[in-house]
Automatic annotation (TrEMBL):
Annotated keywords: Signal
PROSITE patterns assigned to the protein according to its UniProt record, in alphabetical order: NEPROSIN_PEP_CD
Name this protein carries in UniProt: NEP-interacting protein, putative (DUF239)
UniProt source species: Arabidopsis thaliana
The keyword Signal is annotated on this UniProt entry: yes
Amino acid sequence: MDSSNKNLVLRILLTISLVLVSEAAHESRGIPSEEEKKEMERQLKAINKPAIKSFKTEQVEIFDCIDIHKQLAFDHHLLRNHSVKLKPTSVPKWPITYDNKGQKVGPMQLQLKGISCPHGTVIVKRTTIQDLINSQHLKSIGFNIPRHVLSQGSNIDLSGHHFATADYDYDNVAGVTGNINLWDPQVSHDQVSLATMAIAGGPKIEQLASISVGWMVNPLLYQDHIHLYTYWTADGYNKTGCYDIRCPGFVQVSKRIPLGVLLQPISVYNGTQKEMDLSLHQVVTSRVSGVNVGYWPQSLFIASGLVKGADLASWGGQVYSPKTEKSPIMGSGHFPKEGFGKAAFVNNIHIMNGKGEALIPQIYTIETHESSPNCYKAKFVHDEDEPWIRAVYFGGPGGC
Ligand SMILES: *[C@@H]1O[C@H](CO)[C@@H](O)[C@H](O)[C@H]1NC(C)=O
Ligand SMILES: *[C@@H]1O[C@H](CO)[C@@H](O)[C@H](O)[C@H]1NC(C)=O
Ligand SMILES: *[C@@H]1O[C@H](CO)[C@@H](O)[C@H](O)[C@H]1NC(C)=O
């Protein structure tokens, strides 16, 4: 693939993951029949594994401590014989540095207050009927969108979708890291605003694999405020993959930090900046605030290109809004030119190469992309001092 193609693929890919969410928004209010409800209750029993201990948060979400060997991931047909790797086999030594004006949101703050899962268990958010109603729509849309993309070629309908990102598109990349600062942009029920880092690869869109991690405001998925999210697909969003652990795949290893957890505290405009360090890498794990949260086993990606290494990496922001509404805030709602303390950023950007070494990417390997520069911008930073050697400011007030 030449580089312009690869960029397109990444943008398509990130856009599709938003389509999955947004299309569902329009149908999510349909009330299921009694029969459908019964079927969903049956499904819930299969999804929600027996809890050894359970907790209810102030947000009325339920978290369960589940036997690590009996979690949902192992319902995946490719993972029947998988044995849990408590520690990833090859963790690169990611250099973790923070701007001395910022504050790290540590694992203690991401842990749910008063919740402590026993040894040998992992913490997972319990799936509800409403989650199922929503994910059914995610699924059905997932079948349609790739066809649409393929048949339309480059004339993809991007209306409603906006992004402002810094993208690495040069050589094989096996992982990424960065510190993302936290904001809580207001959105309407049907809108989405997120900050993410992702890697993606694959020879064709049908074999396109991608994993991403970041924060997201998405009332359909998470009611309100900002939540830690992950997404994966191994086939260009056709049949595989989902957010967090809404389908079997992600193997949770942490008993402290669940996917989908509410993130707090957030940054204050012209005040204290709250940051979280995140990393994704081949084998393929997800670390949050220095805690190994879990991983997607390689066997999920064998049929796709990702096992051999991703072609692309991306850091930045995305939003979605139905055409009938003005697009929401991205990041802090302020443009990159306002800089530290005011604009959203990802700094301390590193990539991991095929040998498992963490590297600072060369300046020329990174380009910014803005879908709607009037509303959202991205600014690549390459200063002398960590963590600003490679960084991106992104965001804007929206209103497109
Ligand atoms: C799991 O192990 C069994 C018995 O060794 C084997 O027959 C089966 O093919 C394996 N399944 C997978 C998905 O590797
Ligand atoms: C989706 O997967 C099915 C079966 O695996 C395949 O027949 C179909 O062509 C795929 N669709 C796209 C758009 O890749
Ligand atoms: C930011 O904070 C500084 C110091 O507290 C203050 O002087 C300045 O006016 C503030 N700027 C904005 C745009 O609020």
